Amino acid sequence: MLNLFSLRGLPWTGADGQQKVQLTAAELESLRSELADIEEREAHMKARLEHIDGILRSARLSGYLYIRTRWTALPGEPAPIDDTKINDWLPRFIVLHGQCIFFYLRSTDLSPQDSTLLSDVVEVGSLPSFTREDEGTRYSFYILTRQGLRYECSHVSQIQVDTWLSALQTGCKVVSESDVLVPNGSSKK
User: Which ranges form a coiled coil (predicted)?
Assistant: First the structure.
């Protein structure tokens, strides 16, 4: 059984073909302390997984998207600079849960890095797809809040982007540009 453990630095002695470990009281206490720490970390990780599992089971939609945030220009401010050459897209784990959108750094995080209420979303729409070096084409959309914060989101899958757009437009009850009716009753396309 002791051969299963690779406890480096511990004195092994063999007598009559039996291998034994000789530990001092301090070494034994140190090992007990390490085991207690490992058990505590294991319990913490199990709690995290149960928490995450509960959120994901009740979420309407979740997954990784590349995100960047922008503030809309206030009246009288100069137009924002052209930042299309800047690669500031960061992968984030997004969860659409209840009446809120949660932005996590990683899918295993216990608390979100940011969040916004669906009632604060005033506009959701498509953005043009773009291509980055060695990354392929990314399809994108945006979420605009009443505070002027604009979340630009992208993914390599057009289906993922369409799924997020549909879920957000339904959940936020916002009108997209393609759904606006012109006076003669036809749809503006």
Answer: 21-48
Task: Using DSSP, state whether 5 is helix, strand or coil.
Answer: coil
Do residues 118 and 94 lie in contact, with contact meaning Cβ atoms separated by under 8 Å? Answer: no
Query: How much of the chain exceeds pLDDT 90, in percent?
Result: 35
What is the tens place of the pLDDT at every residue in 82-107? 565 666 889 999 999 888 999 999 88
Query: What gap in Å lies between CA 189 and CA 179, rounded to an integer?
Result: 8
Stated as kind and residue range, the H or E segment containing 69 is strand 61-71
- Residue 122 neighbours by CB distance under 10 Å: 14
Q: What b/e sequence results for 10-43 when a residue is b if at least 16 CB atoms lie within 10 Å of its CB, and e otherwise? A: eeeeeeeeeeeeeeeeeeeeeeeeeeeeeeeeee
The dotted CATH code for 61-72+87-176 is: 2.30.29.30
Q: What is the pLDDT of residue 66?
A: 93
SS3 169: helix
The predicted pLDDT at position 87 comes to 67
The upper half-sphere exposure of residue 139, i.e. CA atoms within 13 Å in the direction of its Cβ, equals 12
Listed by start position, the domains of the chain span 25-58, 61-72+87-176
How many of the other CB atoms lie within 10 Å of CB of 117? 13
